[in-house]
Amino acid sequence: MAQLEVRDITPAFGADITGFDPKAPLDDATRDLLRHLFDTRGLLRFRDIDLSHVEQVALSRMLIRKEGLADEGEAPPEDKFYVSNRKLDSAAPFGRLQFHSDTMWSDKPFEVLSLYGARVEQPSAPTIFVSGVQAWKTLPDGLRKKIEGLEVLHTAGVVRRGDLSEVLVTDVPNPPTSISKLGRRHPRTGETILYACEQMTKEIVGIPHEESEAILEQVFEHLYSPAAQWDHEWREGDFVVWDNVAMQHSRKNVEIEGPTRHLRKAASPTPNLRPDQRPIYSAPAR
């Protein structure tokens, strides 16, 4: 077994791992440890490692027990899947991102998401994380009783809510939608997740709009409380991989003319948008 050192990043979620060599063969004991940490901590961070695109995808898939690159569409060409202000046809090349889980609008969202710091200049805008599992566990009793059993509608279309200053607004023609429990059961771990986000959750199903917004405002106030957030400050060679169902992330403002922030992305499995559903990015509000 590899000699790994593991340190909790916050009491609620996240693990820093040192001593991991992505070029070395992965033995069963190391694989089991990494999967256990991923399931229980929700997010793993490896710093100062040399990681190829193929290694990034394979390691991300291993954590959710889906080895290799077998499924069509799950390993995009290396030059196509970036979050970068230096590659303007990449995902989210500029602006601030509100909290979300990628593809929350799908009945089967990404199970795992990862970013690798391919080229990073300082100061670099951090990625901010919260845990939906921890948010559910710490729900105030009154709010828990209010939302128990409620369902929410998620959409890939525009949801304008809260502070939109510097936010990159993404419009998707003919947007797909899905409905889930507000307290959603994790398909792999069985944990309950507070499953709503400010970017993609449109409304609570079956109640008036004003009442829906009032309840969601309380949910977001709890979910995104400053004490629940953790900022990852990017450095070149960072590899951060997280449970996209259990965790949410956001981003501070990134400017095209700002320091290079060129992050390679991997996700699995991939619910693809049709050609007529490709995102249209709008300039952030100032």
Layout of strands and helices, then pairs:
Layout: E1 5-8, E2 15-18, H1 28-41, E3 43-46, H2 53-63, E4 82-84, E5 95-100, E6 112-120, E7 127-131, H3 132-137, H4 141-147, E8 151-155, E9 169-171, E10 177-181, E11 183-185, E12 192-194, E13 201-204, H5 209-223, E14 230-232, E15 239-243, E16 247-254, E17 261-268, E18 280-282
Describe this structure in words.
- It is a single chain.
- The protein is of the alpha+beta class and 286 residues long.
- It has a single domain (5-282), classed as Double-stranded beta-helix.
- It is built from 5 helices and 18 strands.
- The strands form 5 sheets. Strands 1-2-3-15-6-17-4 form a 7-stranded mixed β-sheet.
- Strand 1 (5-8) and strand 2 (15-18) form a beta hairpin.
- It is globular.
- The protein starts with a strand and ends with a strand.
